[in-house]
């Protein structure tokens, strides 16, 4: 079914605003973020929870929620907040172009007991099409008609079972082009929040185009890369590991793949020592983590989520990692406990992208641009972003934020 629009199709969308109600500590949560964002806050403030929500939201569109819950050893009933009496999770996602122009929104209500969204609306600004799920029906209609449902283009009772969002089961040809672009973006969100050395070192057979939860498919992922992409990845790594000469995933018996690197070092005399091959189980944690992160930067993924970006990586190399993430084409969201990370951002990047998460006395997670807080903005005039962070008592900061809220700021 070809569905016309009254303007050119959108492309290169990204997320601009997320509103969440009743997902763990995200009881009444709202956050605005740009192309590169860095979440900071005390332990338990909700940073990992927010990354989990974005990954969950993406999985709704991919479907197969049961597998997602199994990987995390969760149940659907673990998601609703214990701080309210509500059972369902509500959210609204606002999208924009890479230039910041508003595109549209996805509004949904997820039922843990039914394991799918019982209400959904996909709206695109200035378009003649919207997609809605309500009362067991899915319909495509013209939101510009008055009232909009008088111009239904397609409606059908939902007689099939599915998990997550209706977009996980509708064929692409049934979707308006703009909403299809949003769907593609949402399915290309990649969470690296569970990256761990023990997973990155594993031998694997196939990657199915993904690193896998925790990086367990890294060897196969590297093996399946094209020669040009693998060479590009090697050249990136050599900027901080000049002794690195090769990166490969060796094929073993029964189809298993094993990650290996090749290094060479100058001897005390003029020549080079023989090249040294190191298997994954002996590669240092930081290099393994950088291989995984940089490999994803050349993938088709559109939004990367990385928890505690500094984990396992030498301080001398973290600046290179941050600079690379800021410059990449994808939207990126990282979390950190290190003020060093903030110092690798210039003031404008810090003002726009550093977001502070904190909990209220009721246990609700809230967000605020860190350098929109008056005392922090003042410090930024004479300090680097990291020094301003170190010079701040986060316990006392809660009082300043509370006073801003009372004053309507």
Give the key terms:
single chain, 409 residues, alpha+beta, eight-stranded antiparallel sheet, globular
Secondary-structure topology with pairs:
Blueprint: E1 13-21, E2 29-32, E3 36-40, H1 47-62, H2 65-72, E4 89-97, E5 102-111, E6 116-124, E7 130-134, E8 137-141, E9 152-157, H3 177-187, E10 189-191, H4 197-200, H5 218-224, H6 227-238, E11 244-251, E12 257-263, E13 276-279, H7 285-297, E14 303-306, H8 315-327, E15 331-335, H9 339-343, H10 347-353, E16 354-359, E17 365-369, H11 374-380, H12 385-390, H13 394-406
Parallel strand pairs: 3-15, 3-16, 10-14, 14-15
Antiparallel strand pairs: 1-2, 1-4, 4-5, 5-6, 6-7, 7-8, 8-9, 11-12, 12-13, 16-17
Question: Largest sheet, if any?
Answer: 8 strands, antiparallel
Helix content: 25-40%
> What is the chain-wise order of helices and strands?
EEEHHEEEEEEHEHHHEEEHEHEHHEEHHH
- Estimated share of beta-strand residues: 25-35%
Q: Which term fits the overall shape? A: globular
Distance between the termini: 48 Å
Task: Count every beta strand, where a strand is a DSSP E run of 2 or more residues.
Answer: 17
Uncertain segments of ≥5 residues (pLDDT<50)?
1-8
- Class based on secondary structure composition and strand pairing: alpha+beta
**Mean pLDDT across all amino acids:** 87
* Physical arrangement of strands within the biggest beta sheet: 2-1-4-5-6-7-8-9
Q: Helix count, per DSSP? A: 13
Rg to the nearest angstrom?
Answer: 23 Å
């Amino acid at each position: 079914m070809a569905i016309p629009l009254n303007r050119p199709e959108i492309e290169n969308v990204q997320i601009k605003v997320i509103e969440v109600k009743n997902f763990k500590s995200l009881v009444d949560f709202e956050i605005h973020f740009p192309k590169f964002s860095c979440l900071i806050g005390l332990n338990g403030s909700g940073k990992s929870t927010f990354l989990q929500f974005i990954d969950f939201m993406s999985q709704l569109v991919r479907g197969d929620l049961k597998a997602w819950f199994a990987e995390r050893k969760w149940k659907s009933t673990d998601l609703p907040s214990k701080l309210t009496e509500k059972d369902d999770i509500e959210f609204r996602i606002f999208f924009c172009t890479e230039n910041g122009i508003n595109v549209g929104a996805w509004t949904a209500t997820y039922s843990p007991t039914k394991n799918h969204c019982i209400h959904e609306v996909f709206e695109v600004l200035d378009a003649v099409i919207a997609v809605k799920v309500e009362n067991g029906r899915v319909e495509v209609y013209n939101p510009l008609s008055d009232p909009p449902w008088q111009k239904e283009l397609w409606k059908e009772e939902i007689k099939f079972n599915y998990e997550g969002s209706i977009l996980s089961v509708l064929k692409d040809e049934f979707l308006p082009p703009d909403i299809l672009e949003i769907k593609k973006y949402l399915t290309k969100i990649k969470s690296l929040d569970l990256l761990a050395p023990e997973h990155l070192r594993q031998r694997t057979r196939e990657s199915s185009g993904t690193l896998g939860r925790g990086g367990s498919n890294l060897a196969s992922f590297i093996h399946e890369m094209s020669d040009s992409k693998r060479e590009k990845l090697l050249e990136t790594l050599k900027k901080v590991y000049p002794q690195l000469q090769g990166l490969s995933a060796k094929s073993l018996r029964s189809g298993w793949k094993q990650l290996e690197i090749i290094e060479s070092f100058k001897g005390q005399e003029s020549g080079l020592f023989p090249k040294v091959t190191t298997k994954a189980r002996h590669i240092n944690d930081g290099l393994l983590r950088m291989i995984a992160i940089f490999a994803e930067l050349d993938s088709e993924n559109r939004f990367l989520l990385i928890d505690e970006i500094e984990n396992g990586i030498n301080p001398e190399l973290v600046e290179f990692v941050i600079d690379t993430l800021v410059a990449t084409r994808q939207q990126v969201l990282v979390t950190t406990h290190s003020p060093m990370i903030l110092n690798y951002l210039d003031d404008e990047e810090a003002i726009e992208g550093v977001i502070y998460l904190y909990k209220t006395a009721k246990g609700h997670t809230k967000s605020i641009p860190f350098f929109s807080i008056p005392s922090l903005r003042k410090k930024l005039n004479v300090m680097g972003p990291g020094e301003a962070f170190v010079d701040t008592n986060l316990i006392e900061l809660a009082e300043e934020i509370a006073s801003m809220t009372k004053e309507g700021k």
